[in-house]
Structure formats: C-alpha cells, structure tokens
Design brief:
Length: about 650
C-alpha cells in the first residue's frame, strides 16, 4: 500500500508545484502542505522529527531524510507556528494552516489507478506476466526510482521512495515497453507518467542537505562529456537523444557551466565515424549510428561531412577540446582496480572503450589535484556519461575516500535532474529525458547483442538463413523483438527464440507492406472518387455553360434581328420622307422632278441588281449589319459571363 501512496504523492508534488508557482523555486515551501498535514495527523502538541518521518511514510509513502524534515520544520519555526525545544523536538505554538491535500490526493489516486491498471493489463496481454495491483505499483515505483540522484553523497540516500528489494531488469523492460507504447499511442497516459517522474525529481530536492544550495550555479565547473553524449548532440543516435543532450547543454550553459571533451574522446568519436563510413551498406555491420542513418535515409556523404568537420561542429555547440592531464603519482588512482571494477559491471565490446573510460575518470582526478569536493558546485571537474553502469561503478570507486562527497563521474540524467531543480520552469528536459531513457533501456546490452549475432551467424552457416535474412535479423526491428521476447535474458538465446524473432520481424514487414498496399489502394480509390466528383462538377459546369451560352446567343440574335429590321425601317422611312418632301407645296417643279428622277434611278439599279444577282441589296445589307450586331453583342456578353470573348 505504501508504494501506491508514494506514486500518488509524487504526482501531488508536481501538481502542487504547477499550481503554486511562487513556491516553485522554494522547495521548502513546496513541501510545507505535506508537512502540515503529517503534523496534524500526529494529533500531539509536542513531537519529534522521527515521529514526523514515520507519519510521512505512513500517509504519503515517502521516506524523507531527517535533515530535510529539520529544514522544513525550521521554516515553520520562523513563521511562529512551531517552537524548537531541542534538536529533534518541536512543540506547536499556533494552529497550522489548513490545506486541501486529501481532496487533491483522492483526485490523483484515480488517475494513478488508471495508469497502474493499464500497466497491469499490458504486462499480462503482451508478456503473459500476471502481476497483482500491489506488485504492479512496486514495479512502477522501481521504474520511477531510476530517475533519482544516486551519485552524490551530498544527496544523502539516493531516493526518498520506499525501499524496494526486487530489482528485476525484466520488469524494467516490461515497464519501458509500456512507456514506449504510451509515447506512441496515448499522450494522456504519457503525461500522467511524466507527472509522477517530475514529482520524483522535485522530491530529490529533499535529499540535498542545504536546500538553499540549489540556487547556486555551475560557473566554476568544467563538464567533460562522454562519447555517446557527443554523438547524441550531433544528431547521430536518434531524435530524442539529440533533443535531450541539446536541452542539457542549454541548461548547463544558462547555469554558467562549461562543456569540454578530452582529446582522446575526440579521437574515439573520429574512429567510430570512420568505422561507420567504412561499413555503411554492409549488411553484416550494424550499430546505433548506422541504424539511425538507414532509418532516416541518410547518405554516406552526410557521415563524411560530420567526421571531417567535427571540430567546427563542436565549436559551434560551445564544446571545447582539452588534452588529458599528464600522469602524476600524487593524484593517481589505481587504474587496474578501476578496470577490474568496470569488468565486473560492464561487458565491453572492446578493450579500447574501457581504456577510454578509465583515462577519462583518471583525468578528472588529476585535474582536481587532490581537491575535496563536498557539493557538485564545488567539484571543479566532472565527467558526464549516459552509461549508467559506468556512472555507478565509477561513482563508487570515486567515493572510496570518505572526505570526497562528489564523484569524478556522474550520469547525464542525474546531472539533468540537478540542473532542472535549479531552473525547473525553463526546461522540458524531464519529458525528453524520460523518452530518451525509455528507448535507451530497450536497446540490447552488448553481451546480449553479441550472443544473438553469433547465433544467427551460426544458423546462416547451417543454411537456415540467407544473407537477406541476416540483414533483416540485424535491423532495429529485430532488436526490438529481441528485447521483448527475451526481456534482456541472454540465456534464452537459441534457435527457437531466433526463429520466433525472425517470424515476428517478417510478420511485421508483411503487415507494413500490406498496410502500404492498403493505403495505396485507398489513395487510388480516393483519387478515383475525387476525379469522379470533379468530372460531375465539370459536367455540371458545362451544362450551365451551355445554358448560359444558349441564352446569350438568343439575346444576341434578337439584337441582330432588331438591327436588321431597323435598317430596313430607316430606308423605307428615308424614301417616304424624300417623296413626301417632293410633294410639298413649297417644293419647286425642278426639285420634284429631280427627286423623282433620283428615286427612279435608285429603284432601277436595285431592280437590275436583283435581276442579275438574285439578291435584294437592301435586305442583304440589313442582314449583314444584323449579323455584325449579333456578333458584337455576343462577344461583349460572353466577356462578362465567361471572362473572355467568344464567337457565336
């Protein structure tokens, strides 16, 4: 039950931080409502810090360190709510402020119940793992604990979450697969998960002995990035790694930190890029960079450009290259002992990678030159890696010295957590970090991948797989299936599991192909429907065009007929007027005779024209004039209705 309470409390912390923006940088203020409620639950006017610690665990599921409880109680003493009788013993002076913690808790419990129920069903449906609800909460809390600060002694115990003894890596693969599914399918579920993770990151502030120290910047620190972080920053290992490392760089620079890489790290990066260039297109050679290149359809020339302009690219990203310090017996660490410790935790694919890591940790010790760091802000030099196994072993090795509180090495997420606590409003780093950590957790470890590769090569030699099959079995899709089918257990690698992976990958490829065909058919069908609709619209427009055109022709024809009749009418009217004038009394005999002669001649000419050519010129002239009028009127009307003149 405590695990469920802890999950809900983490969500409450994040929601409370969002609502109480004035307290967002004041982490003591953020935890005051929880402390007030716990003290009231004690039901005593006088209490000890141990009593408060037990009540916080009982009610909220958080195992808060005593020093953090003292810090928060000190705030209540300053506000005159409490009085400190002696170290660890307090008495209530005035009534503590009320809060709506319980009401908020009930609301969030429903949301967390939905998430845990979905995770429980997901584990059963996909992996045939039947967890009860309490076990589901425990596994999920174990996942949340991964986003805690384990690296620094100054952060007391690495987590305020309840102690979890079962730390099965298989369970973590199940949860990360579930998180990956929410990333791809459900924004609401993913937001609920990030709310809990961010709540845990906020709770990490309680682990710092001096909460006020969180406001200090990184102006006196040099951070040395490991090779994978630089590859991520160069956008060579996936979108989310690029976004996460870019945002981490932004936060560090805003906090005054300076980022470097060692010269031997630069050489390692150049060698990796050269290997990728030499093996680009080789179906038997794969790594994260080549996987990403193939997924994004990148060309070989893109890799060549990155390798050849590496120093300039790093300089643009404000990353400087610095040589490793010379060996100094006064500051030397036992590289042999460190190498043995690393071999026990990490199965390196090659010795050069291990030598690089040892040299980086050794160099940090040399740069510190015996300086004892008690806070990260005072550390001076820190090596940052995305390899959590390396950070864990390197951190333990660094902290053998009881006077040393800050290790030579820290994981990128732990550094991101501390940086985010210093500037939480300004960054979306937690969301990006969750996504990047999820995809990284679902990458096969070197030992599992190497054993898998050996097995498929053995089956290829036995004739069970063709070269094309091997290419498929090395793809990133095969990696996903490998993790889901084996849950990271290399002992399960064998012909049966290999065939199962092959069948699933082929099935997925067929599904993708069928979906592409289906989508193409839908596209063709939609295109046909669109063409049909357009044709119907075109036919309708043509019919409307014909109807309008017909009306315009009728109007033009009427205008032409009117013009024709008007000419004949005017001619008759003219002749009538001439004859009428000649008959007037005022007209002289001479004028009358002249008019009669002229009219006679005109009639004679017209009659002769009619006899010879069989046509009445006046009527013909009227007809031609009418046609001209018809044409002109139609052209003007068609220009108005059809935007350009037409011929009738």
């Amino acid at each position: 039950m405590i695990n469920i309470q802890a999950i809900t409390t983490l969500a409450m912390l994040k929601v409370h931080a969002d609502e109480q923006s004035e307290y967002y940088r004041d982490y003591i203020g953020l935890f005051l409502p929880f402390m007030n409620h716990a003290i009231k639950e004690l039901g005593a006017d006088q209490f000890t810090t141990d009593m408060v610690q037990n009540k916080l665990l009982q009610v909220f599921g958080l195992n808060v360190p005593l020093h953090a409880i003292d810090n928060i109680l000190h705030r209540l003493v300053k506000k005159k709510y409490l009085e400190r009788i002696k170290p660890g013993l307090y008495v209530i002076k005035i009534k503590l402020p009320d809060s709506d913690i319980l009401g908020r808790k009930a609301s969030l419990e429903r949301r967390q119940f939905a998430i845990l129920s979905k995770l429980q069903g997901f584990a059963k449906d996909k992996f045939l793992i039947d967890w009860d609800y309490e076990k589901t909460a425990e596994v999920f809390l174990r996942y949340i604990e991964n986003f805690s600060i384990h690296c620094l002694k100054s952060y007391a115990k690495g987590s305020i979450l309840p102690q979890i003894t079962d730390k099965s890596e298989k369970d973590m693969i199940v949860v990360n697969t579930f998180v990956k599914t929410t990333i791809e399918t459900s924004e609401e579920d993913f937001n609920n998960i990030t709310t809990i993770v961010k709540g845990n990151m906020l709770a990490n502030a309680l682990l710092c002995p001096d909460l006020n120290n969180l406001s200090h910047k990184f102006t006196d620190i040099e951070f040395y990035f490991d090779t994978p972080l630089i590859l991520g920053l160069l956008n060579l290992q996936g979108e989310y790694k690029y976004k996460t490392t870019t945002e981490l760089m932004r936060l560090l620079c805003n906090l005054g930190g300076k980022v470097f890489i060692f010269e031997h790290t630069l050489v390692e990066i150049q060698n990796i890029l050269t290997w990728c260039i030499n093996n680009h297109g080789n179906s038997k050679m794969f790594n994260l960079i080549l996987d990403e290149m193939y997924k994004r359809n990148k060309k070989l020339s893109d890799l060549v450009i990155v390798r050849d302009s590496l120093k300039d690219l790093l300089a643009k990203k404000l990353i400087r290259v610095k040589p490793a310090p010379a060996h100094d017996p006064k500051t030397e660490i036992s590289e042999v002992d460190l190498g043995i410790a690393l071999d026990n935790e990490i199965k390196y694919a090659n010795d050069k990678a291990k030598e690089h890591d040892i040299d980086c940790i050794r160099s940090i010790f040399a740069y510190r030159n015996g300086h004892k760091a008690y806070t990260i802000e005072d550390a001076g030099f820190i090596f940052v890696t995305s390899n959590y196994g390396l950070a864990k072993i390197g951190g333990k090795f660094s902290l053998k010295d009881e006077d040393q509180a800050v290790p030579a090495i820290i994981s990128d997420f732990e550094l991101a957590n501390i940086a985010w606590l210093k500037t939480p409003i300004e960054s979306q780093l937690p969301d990006l970090g969750i996504i990047a950590a999820c995809y990284a957790a679902l990458e096969p470890k070197d030992a599992l991948w190497l054993k898998y590769l050996k097995e498929i090569e053995r089956l290829e030699q036995a004739g069970q797989f063709s070269p094309d099959d091997i290419y498929i079995m090395r793809s990133y899709k095969a990696k996903e299936e490998l993790m889901e089918i084996t849950l990271g257990d290399e002992s399960l690698i064998g012909p049966e599991k290999i065939n199962e992976i092959y069948n699933k990958v082929i099935s997925q490829k067929l599904e993708v192909k069928n979906k592409e065909i289906h989508d193409k058919n839908d596209e063709i069908s939609n295109e046909k429907n669109i063409r049909s609709q357009l044709q119907e619209e075109l036919n309708g427009l043509k019919q409307r065009d014909m109807a309008v055109n017909s009306k315009l022709k009728k109007i033009s024809s009427v205008c032409g007929d009117c013009a024709e009749q008007s000419i004949i009418f005017i001619a008759i009217l003219f002749v009538s007027l001439v004859i009428g004038i000649s008959c007037l009394p005022i007209a002289t005999v001479f004028i009358s005779k002249r008019i009669i002669v002229i009219c006679t001649i005109i009639l004679l000419v017209l009659n002769t024209y009619d006899m010879v050519w069989g046509s009445k010129p006046l009527k013909k002239y009227a007809k031609v004039s009418g046609n001209i009028v018809t044409t002109k009127v139609y052209q003007q009307l068609s220009k108005i209705f059809f935007e350009k003149p037409r011929l009738p």
